[in-house]
Design brief:
Helix content: 40-55%
Distance between the termini: 51 Å
Strand content: 5-15%
Number of helices: 11
Order of helices and strands: HHEHEHEHEHHEHEHEHEH
Largest sheet: 8 strands, parallel, barrel
Number of strands: 8
Structural class: alpha/beta
Number of domains: 1
CATH superfamily: Aldolase class I
Radius of gyration: 18 Å
Length: 256
């Protein structure tokens, strides 16, 4: 059955993949954005284990100043940033099962429920990569569904598939399973596995999930040009630690 699904998906994508291979990563016709427009795509992110309170204060101040879509933090910092950003309209995103994704589903669900009760509006969960690569597809799907059940009706669930560790076939399967499990987004990377977002991966993910799901690019996004290229490839959210540098780079294109 796995082979059948993969062959069907690959057949649908074959022609489009050939077209994509012929395109430049930084299209000359790429849409340009002001800093304010671009900020609306960005989850301003701080996930380093050594990060201290003053850095999270700065993260929240920057989010207010530049009007980022959300701040993205580990679950233990959700209460702090939720308090700091109260009334700002900026969303709170918490990573779950981060960065390995190998925790059991009940533990992930508990972390998700706790983060949501503490103020998280969005949950970025890490897929069970080992299960996917072992072709335990039911386990992968149920892992996502367990976290989905832990979410509230208005909670956005993003599934980090860790593209840098997957073959193309596995990326396709991960996206298909995430869609089947009723996730809201698929997301490229944790940024902790030595790999980052690429235009090719984002374009592939967008083709698989279609227009009804979101695609979040994260990992290694350092400047305005990269951000615009990923958006033009199909990303409608960006996870960035270098968010201020990215939106500041937009000022060389248009005024803020």
């Amino acid at each position: 059955m796995i082979d059948k699904i993969t062959k069907e998906v690959m057949a649908r994508l074959n022609e489009k993949m050939k077209e994509q291979d012929n395109k430049s990563e930084l299209s000359k016709n790429a849409k340009q954005m002001t800093a304010l427009e671009l900020a609306g795509y960005i989850d301003h992110t701080l996930l380093k284990p050594e990060a201290v309170k003053s850095q999270f204060e700065k993260l929240c101040d920057e989010a207010r100043t530049y009007k980022f879509k959300s701040v993205c933090v580990n679950s233990s910092w959700v209460p702090f940033v939720a308090k700091k950003l109260r009334g700002s309209g900026i969303l709170i995103c918490s990573v779950i099962g981060f960065p390995l994704g190998e925790m059991d589903s009940r533990s992930k669900a508990f972390e998700a429920r706790t983060a949501i009760s503490n103020g998280a509006n969005e949950i970025d969960m890490v897929i069970n990569v080992g299960a996917l690569k072992s072709r335990e597809l039911k386990l992968v799907e149920e892992d996502i569904r367990t976290i989905k059940r832990a979410c509230r009706s208005n909670t956005v669930l993003k599934v980090i598939i860790e593209t840098g560790l997957l073959t193309e076939e596995e990326k396709i399967l991960a996206c298909e399973i995430s869609k089947k499990a009723d996730a809201n987004f698929v997301k490229t990377c944790t940024g902790f596995s030595g790999h980052g977002a690429t235009v090719q991966d984002v374009a592939l993910m967008r083709r698989i999930v279609g227009t009804k799901m979101g695609v979040k690019a994260s990992g290694g996004i350092k400047n305005y040009e990269q951000a615009i290229a990923l958006i033009n490839a199909g990303a409608n959210r960006l996870g960035c630690g270098a968010s201020v540098a990215i939106v500041t780079g937009a000022t060389s294109q248009e005024k803020y």
